[in-house]
Amino acid sequence: MTTDEKWEEAKVTEEDLSAARRRIGIEMPHPRPGQEYATIDSIKHYAEGLGDINPLYQKPEYAGRTRWGKMIAHPTMMLIMGVSEKKELTPEERERGKGGGLAGVHGFYSGDDIEWFRPICEGDRLTVKGGLARIDEHKSAFSGTTWHFTSDEVYHNQNGELVGIARHMSIRAERSQIRGKGKYGGLKIQTYTPEDMAKIDADYEREYIRGDEPRYWEDVQVGEEIVPVVKGPYTATSYICFAEGTGPRNQFHRCHSVAYQYRKRHPRAFPFSDYGFPDSVARVHWEHDMARRTGLPAYYDYGGERIAWLSHGVTNWMGNDGFLRKLKVSMRRFNFYGDTIWIRGSVTRKEVKDGEYWAWLDLKAVNQLGDNTAFAEAAVVLPSRAVGPVKIPAFAPEGLSIYM
Fold first, then answer.
1. What is the DSSP string of 207-251?
2. Is the distance from CB of 80 to CB of 303 less than 8 angstroms?
3. Domain for residue 395, yes or no?
4. CATH number at residue 68
5. Which residues have C-beta within 8 Å of that of residue 269, sequence separation ≥ 6?
6. What is the pTM (predicted TM-score) of this model?
7. Mind listing the pLDDT tens digit for each residue in 48-86?
């Protein structure tokens, strides 16, 4: 069997799973950060990469006139930052977690559960610590038995202040099972008429950014809807723009000598092309043939990208004086090449919690066929007419992560 056939037919064994579970609780060295510092340029590039034109993340002079007094980063930029506090595993930790990476078994980004406690400001440098927190087995119509991995990451700034916590969810599945189930077998790449594109462009024109006008908690009504944010039609250019904005955060984005050194350690991360040379497994996001080898009909978006899109819908709605406190996202379907996504949402409840004025929203990412590709719940802390501006830092309860 060739190296590439092994890549396509990799299996999950009980021995693999036992080894993976032994990794729970081991603080892991973090992959290289996409951005080490929140600079004017990195903040702008990240916002541009997710397609956000809010001047709060684009124009230093505008941001300087807001309550923050300087540029702040789009909240989800936290996920691509963070210098690892831990540089390497001890020999004991390495032995304990040996063989637990499920090498060659495909991983899909399936969601995030994020909490923020203070904004990322121009000049901040984040550190991160974390590792695997749990593994759950599920049955799936998409790929038979799947294994859901949850990893925790805890972020602090250069002053040692807690910035946020992210719980990343990924699904590990055998590629042969994905191909066999054929869930997306009948899917065709979407085509558009000039009239279709005119409607999409009209929704781009209707985008509403709350901006400087405070959205007070008392004025929010349960049931009110956000103005939808449109993303698409999705192309390889969309992915390239997001990758440029995030920097080298994705561990599979490597080239030449950098790729070679990584490939020596992780050969299955660079399966061979039909032309006899290795290339990154990340090309499922820009190459149809590679995506089809995993049982999918076309290349598809990156999970972190869609999470950023969902947060974009919230930040447009809450205005400059609000603070995104929580975002929990569950991916349900892929966004493929040619798909257009609308971020829709509405307010579901309001409460005063720990002295903060919270509004909760349900969100969804809906494609051109009416399919819900992701669901999310967001919590926003808003200014109050009664007590004034949002207090920073937000209240942080105990026991948020095993890695704190």
1. ----TTS---GGG--TT-BPPPEEE-S--HHHHHHHHHHH-TTST
2. no
3. no
4. 3.10.129.10
5. 251, 252, 262, 263, 280, 281
6. 0.90
7. 999 999 999 999 999 999 999 999 999 999 999 999 988
